[in-house]
Design brief:
This protein has four helices and no strands. The chain is mainly α. α1 packs antiparallel against α2 and α3 packs antiparallel against α4.
């Protein structure tokens, strides 16, 4: 995590320098603001990673002599099959289409999104996958 934190902090420094140069040369407000916000996001992520790296054990990515196999292991449990992302995608598509066609379409997309979200969260509390 240490190297990732340093990378984000250096990226934040670079973006800050570019934001200042861009703001002085272009005198354009929107792009300058976007660059300063990107600086803020990079510094938050970099600080979090650097802060967390001091409190956890060093990982294989922090060892320069580590092999790929040193970082191998179980990454977690992932659902083998699920229909819930499809309903979330349909609901999200309807929600974004409501920006174009009218906000009334949001009334139809919100229940689809909620059903997909609750179905995905509670997927392993009911049905055949209940005991996993």
């Amino acid at each position: 995590m240490k190297i990732q934190g340093r990378m984000f902090i250096w990226l934040a420094v670079f973006i800050l320098a570019m934001a200042i140069v861009y703001g002085v040369w272009s005198k354009e407000v929107v792009g300058t603001t976007a660059l300063f916000m990107a600086f803020g996001l990079c510094i938050m992520v970099g600080y979090y990673l650097a802060f967390t790296a001091r409190r956890v054990d060093a990982g294989a990515q922090d060892d320069k002599n580590a092999d790929v196999a040193d970082d191998a292991g179980e990454l977690g449990f992932f659902a083998p099959h699920s229909w819930q992302p499809l309903s979330l995608a349909v609901g999200g598509a309807l929600a974004f289409m409501s920006i174009c066609f009218g906000w009334w379409l949001m009334y139809f997309s919100a229940p689809v999104i909620l059903v997909g979200l609750f179905g995905w969260v509670f997927e392993f509390y009911r049905g055949e996958n209940q005991n996993q």
